[in-house]
Amino acid sequence: MASTAAPSRFVGIGVRPDASASRFVHKAAALSSSLPGAAVVKVHQHRSKARNGQAIRCAAATGKEQGAVSTASSGERSKGGLRGKLNKVVLAYSGGLDTSVIVPWLRENYGCEVVCFTADVGQGAIELEGLEKKAKASGACQLVVKDLKEEFVSEYIYPCLRAGAVYERKYLLGTSMARPVIAKAMVDVAKEVGADAVAHGCTGKGNDQVRFELTFYALNPELKVVAPWREWDITGREDAIEYAKKHNVPVPVSKKSIYSRDRNLWHLSHEGDILEDPANEPNEDMYMMSVAPENAPSEAEYLEIGIVAGVPISINGRDLSPASLLAELNEIGGKHGIGRIDMVENRLVGMKSRGVYETPGGTIMAAAVRELESLTLDRETMQWKDIVALKYAELVYAGLWFHPLREGFDALMEKLTATTTGSVTLKLYKGSINVASRKSPYSLYREDISSFENGEIYNQADAEGFIRLYGLPTQVRAMLEKGL
Amino acid sequence: MSPHPVRAAPNLTSSPYARARSATDRTPSNLALLSPCSSLLIPMTAIRCAAATGKEQGAVSTATIGEQSKGGLRGKLNKVVLAYSGGLDTSVIVPWLRENYGCEVVCFTADVGQGAIELDGLEKKAKASGACQLVVKDLKEEFVSEYIYPCLRAGAVYERKYLLGTSMARPVIAKAMVDVAKEVGADAVAHGCTGKGNDQVRFELTFYALNPELKVVAPWREWDITGREDAIEYAKKHNVPVPVSKKSIYSRDRNLWHLSHEGDILEDPANEPKEDMYMMYLEIGIVAGVPVSINGRDLSPASLLAELNEIGGKHGIGRIDMVENRLVGMKSRGVYETPGGTIMAAAVRELEALTLDRETMQWKDVIALKYAELVYAGLWFHPLRQGFDALMEKLTATTTGSVTLKLYKGSINVASRKSPYSLYREDISSFENGEIYNQVDAEGFIRLYGLPTRVRAMLEKGL
């Protein structure tokens, strides 16, 4: 282990005397000695310990004999894998091909137990029984499932909604908000099951790897992190299927979509295939959460959204929990073709990418809250709130959810939106949202002042003094220019 | 300090608020703006204006002829350029100015795309109300290329929705008035804006910036006319023909960029404003951040906007209903129709997604907020706005290409985007591995990007 003798700031960053417990287990080839002061892990040490084709048998939690994951001899539990040694890894598990393959790969490469973790963030019906069987068939010793929907909406989505956070004009941060809630749950699960590491199935080309890992750092910097996609040789679907077969892992039978999708209660994203050329319009058959505006009802629907302190709490007078409210708005919005977003965005990891997002309920919520703010926020407040919203979106997009600046912004937003209470009626029609009505007991709009009739509160003569003083700098500069 | 209705440039050798005082002692120096004119000493109010045509000016009242040098009820001005629309308000202002300031009145009408201006009728009307001259200027191309396009390029939107239609028009009109004042030798300018709105600010800040020596008269802040009936009565009393057009219940402002509506039921933001087509694909060609063509046809800025207005209007595009914070302090509710502008903005913003990198887009959007505030507040002629334009010119130099939009029943959706300067590369962003992007690099990136997070967490955990 290359912890330098000098009091490096990096001593103690998950580095233990046992060289195997390096924070970042990664390919030796990727190591660069130019990383200043970083703890450099010598992975070759572990290679010498590894035996090719080594099978690691995981002690199954049920006591049932684990199907051998390879034909090689059984190793002892303390033996490392091809790349290092970990004890127990919590893996973000979806049941798809990628994460199914990661289970045996982790065991083969790190000689560890694998606990699969699945979060319900509203991605659609999770067949729990089938999932547990699948997880164990691929070699996991346990499957943990947590329903995070209400937490997702009330503690991650609602703060962003209240702040008005939108990334690069259009993106409503659906995936960005979900990763931290999942990653936080993984850190909790790691503690519950006594794991020393966490792993995710994100590729090395996207933002999600950043979002997961920054959350791990923030909540438990001692956890080791494994990102198989950045290490292994599997380059695509065929490789993965081959690997699965070699390790006796049942290959999921579902037909893989040509699109890469991410779905949760807030949105459904699509990337890939013809979308990779921004000159192409998406095909109508790609969409899943919303109908085409042309096929939406020709009769508009009016919806009254009740709002308290900057977040929605009711639809047409019915109070609903955050997740239920969002689910219902998704249905209504989807029916009317609301919330389709097609954009080219700047990823954190450096390139531009093109994605299409369906955010029916969220688009309705955002429209309602923004509209109510036009009654309750004065000019100074709205100005700065909108500037901060830009930065807020950047932080969330970049995976810096667990960050004091975001937390500080939340404290600010809580203050600024304390009086954003009332209701907004929206008219939904063939993909459009139009405001039909707005009301608030805290409205700063007064008909008696703004109407064309003269009133007591506003004296038109005052405008002269106002303009004279407001325009004084302009006058002075003009006089300077004219030599007056 | 008593407010004086006639303002002049501050005299540097004395108080900045020194006023040009009329020679005549009849000038009420402490005129309370709200006191009725009839309480003043001078009963006769007729001042005959020397008509430019030589034709005998119809007497504007039955009183005796006054000398040209005689002041009016409130002071003395020589010649005032008035922003004139031919409507009831500005028609009444003409005799009011003459009565109160003993001046000649030159009416000025700007064509900023508000709709067919019947020039013959307008000149007659102006003179019938007592003006000695009518000047008309077509400002449409200047309006679009020198005021609208910079705002469009900057992405300026006020309070999330307002596309600044009226805010951009006032400075171009006010600047033209300053030019006309020079051309006709006027010493003052006047506008028909009320004392309750933003427009008075936008006109007057422009006057200050371009010619601080011009005096400014804002009749609405001075006179006693409180509504339509008063105005009609005043007009009759001064033999001014009352415009016959039925006044809309809404207060409207129209130009090539937009049509705004305020008043009546709109004044209650709880009320919905009272009104197929198959979809349409439109290709907008863009060069350096502003549109240049529709479906391959190059058009002048004003023609392009006019055509997009027609197309957009047909598809119900660009209706904006909002409650906004006025500069003068209160909230007001207005509905804006900005069909062509909404299409333009969508196209330019979409092309920027290809041509602007992350850092650029971030700061461009922060500045756009301030840019909109300046324009909304009437600070068009301001070095900060001009500085922002220089910045925006740099930032949008490569925003060239074309965007195809799909218009359908009030919505705009992007169908395609192309640019020779696109920073989007399929070979990098696709799911296939490529040469340019090495996935392993992501690890080092995350480790360094996340270092502050790790250090803080270690601090919190006593590590």
Automatic annotation (TrEMBL), chain A:
GO molecular function: argininosuccinate synthase activity; ATP binding
Keywords from the UniProt entry: Amino-acid biosynthesis, Arginine biosynthesis, ATP-binding, Ligase, Nucleotide-binding
Annotated InterPro entries: Arginosuc_syn_C, Arginosuc_syn_N, Arginosuc_synth, Arginosuc_synth_CS, Arginosuc_synth_type_1_subfam, AS_cat/multimer_dom_body, Rossmann-like_a/b/a_fold
Main enzyme class: ligase
GO cellular component, one term: cytoplasm
Assembly description: Homotetramer.
Record-given protein name: argininosuccinate synthase
Automatic annotation (TrEMBL), chain B:
One Gene Ontology cellular component annotation held by this UniProt entry: cytoplasm
Pathway terms, separated by semicolons: Amino-acid biosynthesis; L-arginine biosynthesis; L-arginine from L-ornithine and carbamoyl phosphate: step 2/3
Keywords: Amino-acid biosynthesis, Arginine biosynthesis, ATP-binding, Ligase, Nucleotide-binding
MF (Gene Ontology): argininosuccinate synthase activity; ATP binding
Domain called Arginosuccinate synthase C-terminal: residue spans: 250-455
Annotated EC: 6.3.4.5
Enzyme class: ligase
Start and end residues of each stretch annotated as Disordered: 1-23
Domain Arginosuccinate synthase-like N-terminal: 79-241
Quaternary assembly: Homotetramer.
Name of the protein in its database record: argininosuccinate synthase
